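Per-record layout

source: Microbacterium invictum
name: ROK family transcriptional regulator
length: 409
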Amino acid sequence: MSLVGPGGRQRNLSTILTLLHRTGPLSRASLTEATRLNRSTIADLVGQLVRHGLVTERAPDPARRVGRPSPIVALSPRVVAIAANPEVDAITLAAVRLDQTTVIRERHEVDRPPTPEEATALLAERLTVWRQGPLADAAIVGVGLAVPGLVRASDGLVRDAPHLHWRDVPLGDLVAEATGLRTRVANDASLGAMAEHLFGAARGVDDVVYLNGGASGIGGGLIVGGVAVGGSGGYAGEFGQNRPGIADGADRLAVDGVLEDEVSRSRLLAAVGLDSADEPTLAAALADPPDPETRAAVAGEVERQRRILSTALANAVNVLNPSVVVLGGFLATIAEVDVDDLLARVRAQAMPAATEDLRLRLASLAEDRLLIGAAEVVFDSLLADPASAPDLPDDGLETRVTAAAPSSP
């Protein structure tokens, strides 16, 4: 098979780069087999990707002795996206490579919800420092922001991040102006769903419900028929705002509260006597309370939240009939106590036919899931048209601001 016109070349470059992005390093022979292009075409396309600074080639595995040796093609470690997740208790920043590995990860705790301007200033300041240090030789593609709130798909406007007290914030414009980089903005849980679908616990699964538990509450993301579903405005998946079904009135702690008022990270922190904590710290505190009295309080609160969560998940299963439900953040922590038991509770409350093949999984990308998702929406345009970035090795990409629309795998 040969290339036909510039459109065909673009598609083939995109196919090769996306394959490497999704699966890791491959030999030229494997690329030839996967794409059904001929060897000379693969060599030409790989050569162009090398010239753009997007991939590297190395000698084949010396242990492979059968047939003609085939060079190994891998993504360049220099290509990175900056990812940010502003929250009520911390702003987490990272530099994520095209192969999903994290070069840098920093959590900056705050004593109150940051303003958009404060979050932007911190990101710009840290990026300046990184460019003089660990990212001095990096090709920075852009910035992705995972925001715990409603983000309009058409232009990335943060319509309402209630826990941050942000309303109608043009966050992408603020960050692009401060950094000079192309910027994309999306809901944090939607990005977590995409990351787990492409690279994590729901990889290869076409129908997924993802729930994310963070400092700002509970959000969610949906994959239906292999496609991310955002809804007409991009606001789908707000499971935390649903009214929970609570069978035992004694379990209700928030009068007329929504799901995230009852199944709550702040209630777990209070049970272990912490004001703030990252995900591993909270998980460790819940697993090993310091004394019998705290241990009893923690066990009771975790059990209460599991009962309410199981009903919420059963409702989601009845409506959406997913193959897999993935839980991230503190929801994964309380589910991990006994995943099989939680799944059994969901099945007991949902339609039997809808749960026959249902699986419940914990987010395998752990605390990097939102950052990997934020980086992914930055990489999207590069993956779609690798040849559109001829100056990438010198970080010469044109600055643009776009919204993060639902992404198909």
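summary: The mean pLDDT is 91. The chain has three domains: 5-75, 79-191+368-403, 203-364.
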